[in-house]
Description:
Elements: H1 4-13, H2 20-45, H3 54-63, H4 82-85, H5 124-137, H6 144-152, E1 158-163, E2 166-171, H7 179-188, E3 196-199
Parallel strand pairs: 2-3
Antiparallel strand pairs: 1-2
Helix pairs in contact: 1-2, 3-5, 5-6
Amino acid sequence: MSNVYQEIFDKLFAKYKNSPNILGTFEILSSPLQDSNDAIDWVLNNLSIDEAEGELLDFIGGWIGVVRPPAQEEDIFWLCRDEEVADDIDNHHGLSTDAMTEGGYLTGDDGCLSKADPGTYVSDEIFRQYIRAKASTFRKTATREIMFNYILQFGIRSKLIESNRSVTIEPFSYDDMNYFLRDYVTEKGFRPAGIEIAIEPQENPDSEV
Length: 209
């Protein structure tokens, strides 16, 4: 790490070594300059998707246009037929007490926001997935290898169904992709020119990959 005070001192006092006024001036200036220099060095040494946290991670994402999304509600349910309830081991269909639900949630462009902690955003760990996914496809064409790599950044095992000017993603498990992630991948994520990205409808909870 460079020493701002010493660098300035060495350069100027080689010529003006007998000027006490200059010495006093640079003693005052060197402290804030050193703080700025240390902050810049720290940022440059921590510009890693794996190591950055908080605002610095937001800064890295902003370089390639990735904005941290709001935290998504985890305790959600959906309408179903009576015969489907018997197979709902994890109680995903909302058969809970009144204390645990507000009767359903409405979603918007930001997804289904956290009811327990409104105004919060996804964790650094999840946000890193969004940044890595965008970075893996940044200014690249939609080859099969790049598409696979893109989906893998979200921790999703899937198969790709390709046809003329379209790519359909079929996750190994339907639950691997919540509704916010499905919308993000198809509407806000990798959008190669002229290529339509879709998620394969799955009637069964698991598919073969």
